[in-house]
Design a protein that fits this description.
Layout (H helix, E strand, L loop, with lengths): L23 H31 L3 H28 L2 H24 L5 H24 L1 H4 L5 H29 L3 H20 L14 H13 L2 H31 L4 H51 L3 H28 L6 H30 L1 H18 L35 E8 L5 H17 L4 E6 L6 E8 L2 H10 L2 H11 L8 E6 L5 H4 L3
Antiparallel strand pairs: 1-3, 1-4, 2-3
Helix pairs in contact: 1-2, 1-6, 1-7, 1-10, 2-4, 2-8, 2-9, 2-12, 3-4, 3-7, 4-12, 6-10, 9-10, 9-11, 9-12, 9-13, 10-11, 10-13, 12-13, 14-16
Length: about 550
Amino acid sequence: MSSNTNPTPANGSASSPWSPFRHASFSVVWGATVISNIGGWMYSAASGWLMTDLNPDPFIVSMVQAATTLPIFLFALPAGALADIVDRRKFLIVVEVLYTTVAAIFAAIVWIGAATPGNLLLFTFLMGVGAALTAPVWQSIVPQLVPRQDLSPAVAANSVGVNVSRAVGPALGGVMAAGIGIAAPFWFNAVSNLAVLGALLWWHPPVKGARLPVERFASAIRIGFRHARNNPHLRATLVRAAAFFLFASAYWALLPLVVRTQIAGGPDLYGYLLGAIGAAAVGAALALPWLKAKLGPDQLVAVGTLGTALAMILFAFARDAPMALAGSAVAGASWIAVLASLNVSAQVALPDWVRGRGLAIFVTAFFGCLTLGSAIWGQVAGMIGLPAAHVIAAIGALVAIPATWRWKLQTGAGLDLTPSMHWPAPIVASDIEHGRGPVLVTIEYRIDPKDRELFLAALEKLARERRRDGAYSWGVFEDAADQGRMVETFLVESWLEHLRQHERVTNADRVLQETIQQFQTQGAPKITHLIAADRRPAERKLD
């Protein structure tokens, strides 16, 4: 179970597509995750088909997809916080051991014929929890496997690997279920995860010394939310993602019923259709650089959404295998076009210190919409039929294109989000306990009064940076008795959190700060650090 969500290279690179495979760590982990993902996709295909045997009600069948995606909606953000604060390798090993155990237990249940709709949904949910806990961590370790110059092709290789497994796994699972028995794909899923465990036990990343203590879990989640709320590049990506996945979830949730009730096919055909989706995604991935250069990310997502709507129309009217295969091919190519563009947009919007949490928020939106959509479209199909449900979902996807057009993608691609480390260390009279706070930081500017409006407009952009990096309150004040004296203020939870701000400021932030300082007319701005007064015990006794 390697829960990769295919992060895609943020920009072009001179590196060869094969350059990441020169590094043994990447090659071993990549190969192991492909094997594990093949098992995961075999489980996905087999569980959907098994439910049509146990209970063919459209809503119940769609709940298999919901049980897979709901845990990621619930647990991805806490997992993202953990990805930023714990030893990622050890965390992955623990969760993968638990996942393998749960997968083996359910394989045995299916083998002895004790599977029910209830325990199928329960174990699918439990394995979904494992996927949710590891998804942000898998994305976050890629920079530890390759040097920076090979990062883009490494991320692209991960995308190809996931889609190769999507092409192979369902088809292999369908063949095994039809030829050996329905329990076979479930056993393969459990055994295949041993490849990932072996790779993680073999891999030993270099240990980096931390300059500051790790963030506390609750604080890390809170600051991750605050960063996302004040990151316009990430917010735009989330809006576009929600608009797409809510409607695209329809064919993922309803495909088992299309095969069984509309086409009267078996598990092998269902596996072939899922395999066709993956194979088309792999083929389309090869053309993505050219398409992105011709269309740009926004138009590419629009084209992918149009293709998804077409695929759902084909599924709506599919009464034989060829039309369903055509729908799968269109769906796979469209899916990778949209997902890759959205992934890039999320990646380039995030600095490294909050990457795990930011990607977790993206994954939460992604799978939250898949979960909600699966439940909605299963219910709609049960009420008005499969064809009508697909057609309505296709219309909704088309309407979403103009409705969300003003939120642009990949607007953070040109930003340098590496740490600038240009803030000087605070001057203090004595050592300050890390937990003391809150901390009030003031920056006093002297500007020409005629530049007031331009200065305030520039400072408003800086306010988002302060909040993104940890400030929970920000303001600007002007001296009523001294024209041109402006004071910026922001509050941080603790002294330690303010020290972390020093490490989070990026080169893009530095450029903005230098622009603001050009308004300064008298030397450098004056910076003051004020800490909430804490009376000492000896002083309290005098009361």
